[in-house]
Specification:
CATH architecture of one domain: Alpha-Beta Complex
Distance between the termini: 48 Å
CATH topology of one domain: Phosphoribosyl-aminoimidazole Synthetase, Chain A, domain 2
CATH class of one domain: Alpha Beta
Largest sheet: 7 strands, mixed
Shape: globular
CATH superfamily of one domain: PurM-like C-terminal domain
Oligomer: single chain
Strand content: 15-25%
């Protein structure tokens, strides 16, 4: 005997309590389309019902902030009449099901978020996490996701300029695909999504609506992945060539002042776009679903929640409607007036001459339930006993093995699949600096961009991990010569109602907020992705920080490559530890405390040295420790270095240990004293540890010496990722 099918609301992802609340709010039972609408808008992906109470901790205001969280993207004034829009978002679950389309549509969606602000997209970044690279599933997910990102970005003509790729068995079932986009717009021409003006037309622009993506936000993105369930129908289908036309069309409409409001159609499709536009504007929208251009026959509920890609929803004054439609036709885009703005605040949908849904828009958005996550602390981490960690016998071989590790090796295999030069704005290519550097159009200035996380630390000490992720992002920008200006974040976590996940989420947000406040950097946008787990395993808590900084002159950006023989190597910051380091190879120990004042001082010292024009190179010490930072600067510059770290307890701790907020810089010999003085004024520790030169890397510490020929280092670092994937 087969078991009875679950109730309709449970099939849609609503709890019994949530389903009972809906008729109470409406004063009547919901129609089936209305129930579907609530299920999408009250999902974790759209409603943030577990995370929203925590997100208010983030600092969100600053002198240049034109738009903070709550819109499609954040916007920051950067001077010269220009503003920068930035946003990072996840497309994790779809990418785990169908990696090419999942990653591609993730790029398309984040681009449209930037476009909805009236900004022209100028740069893409991605932050990726996969399981063990030698595993067939992880290889498949990585190769197809990278292919999807490259295909979409290359086709729309927006350069992919940076990002990160990391591996850990905890991502075997639930990979992470986070995409970040940055755009530029005139500071005085900012678009928003709030609908206004009763009687104004509601216009749907772009692709026809199909069945792809239906249920993606509630069933796919807001639940654990079930390996026994075929979820492929929930993954959207990409069309980058239409996206390119959509970008050009919407920017022309914005330039001509033809748009009252603009909104991307992403998760939950028309329901989300129309509901959010109505709620933000305090108005209603009356939609005729019979006027929606379709690819196939769809029921009203399907039209309302389809997540078909490459679509935008605009509010247009009736007198300008013909102009708008003419511009769309010139770009060979389908456009249809499907409704109007009304008074009263209700989202009304009609089909076949009958009302199929009539819901106060604010019930769909602000009315979503709010849950306090359980805060069950994990056991305090136990610091490693260095005596219990064997020191490598052959230091040179250990150094080479670390450079070959897939989490340390060159990412060239990835970024060579992306067009990072299209648009002619890229100043620093991937692999040449700690942050991507992109010129601001029509100026001598530039922005620097990075994405960073600290997942191993977040597992062991989430507050320290949150602090570390922010500080590493700031160091990367500073190493490129850019002052940190604004941040966006994507919080990737498992089920918040299980174990210590809720506590880790709250602690990470607290740590991130403390670090952002110490730097004076606001969060202007972001995304939360929960339920990244399967019945077999859950991911490491992975808060990805995207950060943007400003350079007054693009030609004064700083790279990571050592320059000339004889240049002095200076180490800024404190000592690292073996705990949770890449060399250790396991998530174990207690990360060193993140001293916010001392780490902010290092950022200021690097910035001051860059502004003084004395930096020959600058490179953040992160995964793999000082040994990897030295090797990467040497490989990039084609010249070796000889260093000695005084006062170290062990060679491997001094060279492989992580933490301490450290940066390796090189300066001309005559600038070494000036570098020391700049660091002292900033309150940062600075140690001259050696010099650039020779055909090999030489490192001494704790009475031991390691030598690694530069060519062997280059071969290990350059081929490590491809070797791991073979």
């Amino acid at each position: 005997m087969s078991s009875a099918a679950p109730p309709r609301h449970r099939q849609l992802g609503l709890t019994d309590e949530e389903a009972a609340r809906i008729p109470e709010l409406l004063g009547r039972p919901p129609s089936d389309p209305e129930l579907v609408m609530f299920s999408l808008m009250w999902s974790e992906h759209c409603g943030y019902k577990h995370s929203r109470p925590l997100l208010g901790r983030f600092p969100t205001e600053g002198p240049g902030v034109l738009q903070g969280p709550g819109e499609n993207a954040g916007v920051v004034d950067v001077g010269d009449g220009l503003a920068v829009a930035l946003k990072i978002e996840s497309h994790n679950h779809p990418s785990a099901v169908e990696p090419f389309e999942g990653a591609a549509t993730g790029v398309g969606g984040i681009v449209r978020d930037i476009l909805a602000m009236g900004a022209s997209p100028i740069a893409l970044l991605d932050s990726l996490r996969f399981g063990t690279p030698s595993g067939p599933r992880s290889r498949h997910l990585l190769t197809r996701a990278v292919a999807g990102i490259g295909h979409y970005g290359n086709c729309i003509g927006v350069p992919t300029v940076g990002g990160e790729v990391l591996f850990d068995e905890r991502y075997e079932d639930s990979c992470l695909v986070n995409a970040m986009c940055v755009g530029v717009l005139p500071a005085g021409r900012l678009l928003r999504s709030a609908a206004s003006g009763p009687g104004n037309a509601v216009v749907l622009i772009g692709n026809r609506t199909g069945r792809d993506g239906i249920g993606g936000a509630s069933v796919l993105a807001s639940a654990e992945l079930d390996e026994d369930e075929d979820m492929r129908p929930s993954v959207q289908v990409s069309d980058p060539f239409t996206e390119r036309k959509l970008m050009d069309c919407c920017l022309e409409l914005a330039d001509a002042g033809l748009l009252v409001a603009l909104q991307d159609l992403g998760a939950a499709g028309l329901t989300s776009a129309a509901g959010e536009m109505a709620a933000k504007g305090g108005v209603g929208l009356d939609l005729d679903l019979d006027l929606v251009p379709l690819r196939e026959s769809l029921a009203p509920a399907e039209i309302l929640v389809s997540e078909s890609q490459e679509r935008m929803l605009a509010v247009v004054e009736p007198a300008r409607l013909d102009e708008v439609l003419a511009v769309c036709a010139r770009w060979e885009l389908e456009a249809a007036a499907i409704g109007r703005v009304t008074e009263g605040g209700s989202l009304v949908a009609r089909a076949g001459g009958e009302v199929v849904a009539d819901v106060p828009a604010r019930l769909l958005t602000d009315g979503a339930p709010r849950y306090e996550v359980p805060r069950v602390p994990a056991p305090a981490p136990v610091p490693l006993d260095p005596a219990a960690v064997p020191e490598p016998e052959d230091l040179g071989e250990a150094w080479k093995a670390l450079l070959r590790h897939p989490n340390v090796a060159s990412r060239r295999w990835v970024f060579e699949q992306y067009d990072h030069l299209v648009g002619a704005g890229t100043v620093r290519r991937p692999g040449t600096a700690d942050a991507a550097v992109v010129r601001l159009p029509g100026t001598e200035r530039a922005i620097a961009l990075t994405t960073d996380s600290a997942e191993r630390w977040c597992e062991l000490d989430p507050r320290a991990g949150g602090r570390a992720a922010v500080m590493e992002a700031a160091r990367n920008l500073a190493c490129a010569g850019a002052r940190p200006l604004a941040a966006t974040d994507c919080l990737n976590f498992p089920n918040p109602e299980k174990g210590s996940t809720g506590w880790r989420l709250a602690e990470v947000i607290e740590g991130m907020s403390e670090a952002l406040e110490a730097l004076g950097v606001p969060v202007v946008s972001g995304n939360v992705s929960l339920y990244n787990e399967s019945p077999n395993r859950s991911i490491l808590p992975t808060p990805v920080v995207g950060m943007m900084g400003l350079l007054e002159r693009a030609d004064q950006s700083v790279g990571l490559a050592f320059a000339d023989e004889g240049d002095r190597v200076v180490l800024l910051g404190d000592d690292g530890r073996l705990d949770a380091c890449e060399h250790l190879g396991r998530v174990e120990g207690a990360p060193p405390p993140v001293d916010l004042a001392r780490e902010a001082a290092v950022v200021e010292a690097v910035l001051a040295a860059a502004e003084a024009g004395i930096l020959r190179s600058a490179h953040d010490v992160s995964g793999g420790g000082l040994a990897v930072a030295l090797a990467e600067s040497a490989i990039a510059g084609g010249v070796g270095a000889e260093v000695e770290v005084p006062g170290a307890r062990r060679w491997d701790e001094a060279l492989f240990g992580e933490g301490g907020g450290r940066v390796v810089v090189s300066v001309r010999p005559q600038d070494a004293a000036r570098m020391a003085a700049i660091a002292e004024r900033a309150g940062a520790t600075a140690r001259e540890i050696g010099a650039v030169g020779g055909p090999e890397l030489v490192a001494r510490a704790a009475g031991r010496e390691a030598r690694l020929p530069l060519e062997r280092a280059r071969a290990a670092h350059g081929g490590g990722l491809a070797e791991a994937l073979a």
